[in-house]
Amino acid sequence: MIYLDHASTSLPKPTVVIDAVAEAMQSVANSGRGAHGASLEAGRVLFSTRMALAELFHAADPSRIAFSANATESLNTVIKGLFHPGDHVITTQWEHNSVLRPLYEMGSLGLEMSVVPSDDQGFLYASKQPTAPQLPGCAWRGTAESIFGPLVRSNTKAVICTHASNLTGNLSDLKALGRFCQERDLLLIVDAAQTAGVFPIDVQAMNISILCFTGHKGLQGPQGTGGLYVRKGVHLRPLKTGGSGIMTFSRVHPEMMPEALEAGTQNVHGLAGLLVAINYLLQEGMDELRQREQALAWQFYQGVAALENVTIYGDFRSSERAAIVALNVGDEDSGWISDTLAQEFSIYTRPGGHCAPLMHEALGTRDRGAVRFSFSHSNNEKDVAAAVAAVRILSQR
Amino acid sequence: MALQVEQGCNEPRQGRVIVTFPTTHLALAFEGRAHADAIPGRLIPVPREISAGCGWAWAAPVSTQQQLEGWLTIAAVDYEQIFVLDR
After folding, report:
1. What confidence tens digit (pLDDT) does each residue in A117-154 have?
2. Which of A2, A274, B29, B75 has the fewest CB atoms found within 10 Å of its own CB?
3. Using CA of residue A278, residue A261, residue A189, residue A322, what is the dihedral sign?
4. Nearest-by-Cβ selection for A47 from B22, B29, B53
5. Pairing of strands A371-374, A324-329
6. How much is the ipTM here?
7. Which of A169-173, A199-203, A332-336, B66-70 has the lowest mean pLDDT?
């Protein structure tokens, strides 16, 4: 198997992560439900994982990080817990359905929404006057002010956007966006599903109000882990209320973070794995790992870009992007290409819509989707060479 | 100032000083700091004399109350209240 679908989930997980989950399943119980050793150990796992995430994201207070099942649950918590009818948000055509669907749902309850457009190479642009693209590493044709500014209204509450497109791998400049939001007194809500654990994210320096992340992609942790950082002063109505391990006889769910946004048994065993995964990333060096996977994606891009009959989507001015290459072969259905890659070449990719409907509208690939190759530091040059060779064969059929 | 909570039980157990917290996160933060500074005690279920609502509290022998309270003035740890129980 040559696994090139890391944007769906990272595979395989580091051995230390697998071992940590297995070990936790043998000795770690439920946090806050007793004070015996196994329950206290569960509490310590949660505490240590919050501390590790706070270090990773440069959050001053680890209690501002609540756990969730994944970025989708985090985004639902935010979108349904933050806005009121009559509020307005700005989002983009890059967004995943985990942002769009909750926004549409809230739209039926009175939330207003504006969408920053994307062109057919996945660049966000100012609808009135697109300009030359920013420096490599930011797929904008314009500045934060020229792209997002015209959409701001008197009732605009937030900008909500992904750090990197899960389809094209194009990146936004969070620091510039954070500065813009600060100047306009707007909340900045970031979907870091594709970038947490890969790209440096500093919630303070980037003025990020809320960061939503998942544990099972770039963070190399188990599925069923994730969370959200909520800056002090930002209040969310919880998505779920219920058992909290404290204040049993209160009819109201606890209102202090992190318990305010956590109900029921947490995925302690999974978070034991996530803790080890974060430490693994910090130990190995997140920058070094990122550069390794970017180099592999770049090697693949250069190989397929030279092929006739292959269309590639995205900002490839440089390798400073998420390690993703989305393409199509001739007029072929992306599903057929991806299935053939798997069946004939044991190369695993993702075809179709990628839960990013507006991105496909922008790329003109709504009807056929695209084949997404996504790389990790666990891949190697031989994987890339094999993938290029396979695409070459299919492009010549 | 610690609250003295009277007990009706005649069981001859040593008294304890109890520290309560608003969240389990803060209880664990306290535990980490206390261990690092070699402060006696451990996390226990919140005694029902204080609250029937679950959660963790820090418990230490009452003989260490002065040490604990002294440490709390300089340690900059978050907690809710301090109680002294007869047992």
Report:
1. 999 999 999 877 778 887 889 999 999 999 999 999 99
2. B75
3. positive
4. B29
5. antiparallel
6. 0.77
7. A332-336
**Strand ranges, E, within chain A:** 2-3, 65-68, 88-92, 112-116, 124-125, 140-141, 156-162, 187-191, 210-214, 226-230, 310-313, 324-329, 347-348, 371-374
Of the residues A28, A30, A33, A40, the best mutation for testing chain B's interface (the one with the most B CB atoms within 10 Å of its CB) is A40
Q: How far apart are CA A339 and CA A349, in angstroms?
A: 8
Burial track A200-209 (b if 16+ CB lie within 10 A, e otherwise)? ebebeebbbb
- pLDDT digits 0-9 by tens, A23-76: 999 999 999 878 899 999 999 999 999 999 999 999 999 999 999 999 999 999
Which of A34, A63, A254 lies closest to B45 in CB terms? A34
A63 to B53: CB separation less than 8 angstroms, yes or no: no
CB-CB: which of A34, A63, A250 is closest to B25?
A: A63
A44 has a chain B CB within 8 A of its CB:
yes
Residue B9 pLDDT > 50: no
Q: What is the pLDDT of chain A when averaged over all its residues?
A: 96
Of B19, B23, B48, B56, which to mutate for an interface test with A (greatest number of A Cβ within 10 Å)?
A: B23
Residue B12: pLDDT band (50, 70, 90) is very low
Q: Residue B22 in contact with residue B49, Cβ under 8 Å?
A: no
Cα A10 to Cα A1: distance, rounded to the nearest angstrom: 14
Q: Are A138 and A163 in contact (CB under 8 A)?
A: no
Name the B residues in 17-36 with CB < 8 Å from any A CB: 22-29, 31-32
